[in-house]
Design goal:
transport; Immunoglobulin-like; 22-stranded antiparallel barrel; 12 helices; 48% strand; mainly beta; Ferric Hydroxamate Uptake Protein, Chain A, domain 1
């Protein structure tokens, strides 16, 4: 070294940290063009000698390298940004992991980073709009079930929920999980990816990976946010004074009006709005604490979470507390042991689905309740019923005085062991035990306490449900690379069993809300039941790639289910897939625009056995009653269900063709997938013709086909400002191909409100599942049609419906509640210490059956009067509109109530700021404000087109087909508008 160079050397010090200001130990720092350098210590600090002309290269696995010229600096502090291409390179697949570039199937990944900008309290909301091929819908009631569907719906009356696998364990419940515990979620969509789960994979698979300790220094994280929620809109209806005037104007005796001038003046001055009375501002809070870290041999992640949400309806709320402890131990170079424990408690108060719904939900009853009647009389007593409008009981009384509590306790313990037999061969053992204990304690006021026994009913109900599941998975994996050949072979033996028990007690016509009740009357009922099920499985899978160019995957899973009788228990589920990477072609390798291009194709089969444990067997009731002589009842066994010994697997066959691409050196990436899946031998529960008996059969065929589109990238990327965007689009067409034999259609199992027993859905060949069934509304009979109307016993002003050649109403498909297009558009902006997120979702190509509108227009069933503003524009001889005359009888199941459900929603908007160097020892302190469901663009006149009511089933013994009930609004709990203020603290 020359004297001049020696003279220019100076000591450089500094610290290297990540974007969260956490120091990074072990960062390599080299002088460019030399092998001279150093590494950062445990606290991220470094010291080295360098000249002003030296360029220092800072690099560390998982982070983008930085080059910094020394110049006149003596202190250099560096913040390394995460390298997305490295972090997302590894994805979780069934029974292992793989490089994203090596995957042959269709897999969508949602990382914690993609939903960190939204105050997510439900895992389902983290998936919504962030992964193509997935639709998420549900009501706004805290703690209520949210429906997740992967590439459409297969089963007519069965369960279409995807399988949830948490850290390798089957049967996870998304609702009970804490989103802050999640590192990533992979959604397996096509059969080549799903087939490794065989009978479990027919509805898609969601793989959830929880967080592990990564930093060599213990990191504590505390986050807290508070929220306020409210109804996003109000339903347009007559107010108190308007309704009173209408009743006066239409009174048959104008000398004896229902309301005096003074009464109407009082109603104008003090209107009674039951929509306001049943709603409230819901206050929520979420507290999350965690500790994570690792040493040379041990990594750990421990967290606790407490969530509370008041509903936007009075006397409703949801609470969830959870804890998680993930521990990993590297015993030696060959053996690793992990132990995960997760526990949660959920509490739900007054889910509106628990209340009588034959006249719609309790919210619908409030919307149609008499606005001239106060909640209480002058003496402070509830007014239970009125002579106007809805003839049910006062909904404020129902909801305020009832107490329906549901408590769910879950404890999950998993032990996993990974042993490296040699450099190529590894063995993994996963053992799990899960215990769930659910209790319902309910007392619901459904009648006037002053009325006698039998006049209606109050319900006392207690239920205890216990389920224990256990799982053992043995996984052998062999990997070998030779020359340009890469081979990965996996073999699995797996067993899972479940035991469930339920005990219930109910009593009717009870006026004392006490569980210590008994009068030995016929109004008390005791029930108990249970089930024991198991599945034994074998899997073989081979992954092969040649020179990282040609990729082949083949698998075969064999499942044996106890739900089928011997001879039908075994299902075989194969898959094949191939991919070809064009990245080594010169126009891509040397190109500046196209940086990645891979073609994929796959085929496979998966099964479904989502039926009850005794579906193959006949079931009797030992306390049944029958009269042989028509007069005297005899006690004995009665048949409840007819067994089907030939019952077997429902099978879905799927083909998938896709392309993955990257442009501008990977700055933008995307994928496009076309799929077609056909489900045959549907497990369909029907009522046997001519009897009241039920039976499961393998009948029918359903087809789903569509496109999944994903695009993401950095539109702007520089030192101070970054704009990252992602777009996910799902196009879907669902169709029933065949039913049993020559049968063209079967009635659905969902009822219209009002107790008429009319079905509102139909399963029909050529139509989608979820097709609405009803009469086609043609407007009103006009004056010039008086003679024709009279032939049908109608007069001008009556509603007119489509009729056949015999003059009978035509009953048939009038709409569908399954969206054909759904999408999500996420944009994240960072500028220095500011961050901003805007997330927009939407859906088109579906209808909503708006029974709220039907009820408000009155004239049918329990809805005795018309509270709709359309009452001002009803048919008269001088104003012949398409709105039927006052007093005309309206059909509730008609196309008059079908509306387009298309919408665009601003699902989340967030503004945050990172406060630096505010508190010593605090590496990150972010404060933020956000809004959810900020605005909704739609032509739908109800609260929210995206929500569906839990359908009223025509037979309590047959589960309501929830996908047949998609798009039914019978007073669904609306998605609230929520504003949140929070902070995140790391130290």
């Amino acid at each position: 070294m020359s004297a001049q160079n020696s003279y220019s050397q100076k000591t450089i010090t500094g610290t290297v940290s990540d974007e969260n200001k956490m120091p990074i130990p072990g960062v390599s720092i080299l002088k460019k063009g030399t092998t001279t350098g150093t590494t950062t210590d445990f606290d991220g600090n470094f010291t080295l000698s360098a000249s002003t002309e030296d360029i220092l290269i800072f690099s560390f696995l998982g982070y983008a390298a930085q080059n910094i010229t020394v110049k006149e600096q003596t202190v250099i502090n560096v913040v390394l940004a995460e390298d997305a291409s490295q972090l997302e390179e590894i994805v979780v697949i069934g029974y292992g992991t793989a490089k994203k570039s090596d995957i042959t199937g269709s897999v969508s990944q949602v990382t914690a980073k993609s939903f960190k900008d939204a105050p997510v309290v439900r895992v389902e909301n983290a998936l919504q709009g962030r992964a193509s091929g997935i639709t998420v819908s549900g009501g706004g009631q805290p703690g209520a079930d949210i429906k997740v569907r992967v590439r459409g719906v297969n089963s007519v009356t069965g369960n279409n929920n995807p399988l949830v696998v948490v850290d390798g364990v089957f049967g996870g419940d998304l609702k009970s999980l804490n989103p802050d515990d999640i590192s990533s979620m992979e959604v397996l969509k096509d059969a080549s990816a799903l087939a490794v789960y065989g009978s479990r994979g027919s509805n898609g698979v969601i793989l959830v990976t929880t967080k592990k300790g990564k930093s060599d220094k213990t990191k504590f994280t505390v986050s807290q946010f508070a929220s306020v929620s409210s109804f996003a809109k109000k339903i347009d209806k007559l107010n108190s004074g308007q309704f009173a005037r209408v009743l006066n104007n239409e009174a048959s005796d104008q000398n004896n009006l229902p309301f005096t001038t003074q009464q109407i003046a009082n109603l104008d001055a003090n209107p009674i709005d039951y929509e306001d009375l049943i709603s409230q501002t819901g206050i929520g809070s979420n507290t999350q604490v965690s500790m994570s870290g690792r040493s040379d041999k041990i990594n750990y992640f421990v967290s606790g979470n407490y969530l509370t949400q008041e509903g936007t309806q009075i006397n409703t709320n949801y609470k969830r507390g959870s804890f998680r402890a993930n521990l990993g131990i590297e015993v030696n170079d060959r053996l690793n042991i992990g132990f995960n424990v997760y526990g949660s408690r959920e509490y739900t108060l007054n889910n509106q689905d628990a209340f009588a719904r034959f006249n719609g939900s309790i919210l619908l009853k409030a919307l149609t309740w008499d606005p001239t009647s106060p909640v209480r009389d002058a003496n402070g007593n509830y007014i239970y019923r009125t002579s106007n409008a809805n003839n049910g009981y006062n909904p404020i009384y129902n909801l305020t005085e009832s107490k329906d509590e549901v408590i769910g306790d879950r404890l999950n313990a998993t032990l996993n062991l990974n042993y490296k037999i040699n450099d190529n061969f590894t063995y993994t053992l996963i053992t799990n035990a899960t215990r769930y204990n659910g209790n319902t304690e309910s007392f619901r006021w459904e009648k006037d306490p002053a009325q006698g026994v039998g006049s209606s009913f109050n319900i006392l109900y207690y239920n205890n449900y216990k389920q224990t599941t256990h799982q053992i998975s043995n996984i052998l994996n062999w990997k070998k690379s030779f020359n340009k050949h890469n081979l990965d072979i996996t073999g699995v033996y797996e067993f899972q069993g479940a035991v469930s028990k339920t005990n219930a007690y109910s009593a009717f016509d009870v006026n004392v809300p006490s569980f210590y009740h008994g009068d030995n009357s016929n109004n008390e009922f005791f029930t108990n039941g249970g089930a024991r099920t198991s599945i034994q499985s074998y899997l073989g899978r081979v992954n092969y790639n040649f020179d990282n160019t040609i990729y082949l995957t083949g698998s075969l899973r064999v499942d044996e289910s106890s739900k089928f009788l011997k001879g039908n228990r075994t299902g075989y589920f194969p898959s094949l897939a191939a991919a070809y990477s064009l990245n080594k072609l010169k126009f891509i390798e040397d190109g500046e625009f196209l940086s990645n291009l891979k073609l994929r194709a796959g085929w496979g089969q998966v099964g479904n056995e989502n039926i009850n444990a005794l579906a193959s067997s006949s079931i009797t009731n030992d306390s049944g009653l029958y009269s042989f002589d028509g007069n005297t009842a005899q006690t004995g066994q009665t048949l409840i269900q007819i067994g089907n010994p030939d019952l077997t697997w429902e099978t879905t066959t799927q083909i998938n063709a896709g392309v993955d691409f990257g442009i501008l050196q990977g700055r933008f990436t995307g994928s496009l997938d076309y799929y077609k899946k056909t489900t045959k031998d549907l497990l369909l529960q029907t009522t046997v013709t001519g009897t009241l008996y039920r039976k499961y059969e393998n009948v029918g065929e359903v087809e789903n086909k569509g496109l999944d589109i994903s695009l993401s990238g950095d539109i702007i990327r520089n030192d101070n400002f970054n704009w990252n965007t992602s777009l996910n689009v799902s196009l879907l067409k669902n169709k029933v191909i065949a039913l049993n034999g020559d049968l063209n259609q079967i009635p659905g199992n969902n009822l219209v409100i009002g107790g008429s027993q009319a079905r509102v859905d139909v399963i029909k060949v050529g139509e989608p599942i979820g097709t609405f069934n009803g009469y086609t509304f043609l407007g009103t009979w006009k004056t010039n049609e008086t003679a024709l109307a009279a032939t049908f016993d109608r007069v001008p002003g009556d509603p007119k419906y489509l009729r056949d050649e015999n003059g009978e109403f035509v009953l048939g498909p009038i709409g569908n509640g399954l969206p054909t297009t759904s999408w999500g558009f996420n944009n994240s902006f960072t500028y220095k210490d500011w961050n901003f997120n805007i997330f927009i979702t939407g859906a088109t190509g579906f209808d909503v059956y708006n029974f709220v509108s039907a009820a408000l227009n009155g004239g049918a069933a329990a809805f005795r009067d018309n509270l709709s503003p359309s009452r001002y524009n009803t048919w008269t001889a001088a104003n012949e509109t398409e709105i039927p005359r006052n007093g005309a009888s309206n059909l509730l199941n008609s196309s008059r109530w079908i509306e387009d459900g298309s919408f665009i929603r601003l699902s989340n908007v967030k503004l945050g700021y990172n406060l630096k160097n505010l508190i010593k020892g605090v590496s990150k302190l972010e404060v933020y404000a956000s809004g959810q469901n900020v605005f909704l663009i739609t032509n739908y006149s109800g609260y929210d087109p995206e929500v569906s009511s839990t359908p009223i089933t025509s037979d309590p013994g047959i589960s309501a087909p929830v996908d047949g009930g998609a798009g039914l609004d019978q007073g669904a709990y609306p998605n609230p508008r929520t504003f949140t203020l929070g902070l995140k603290l790391e130290f």
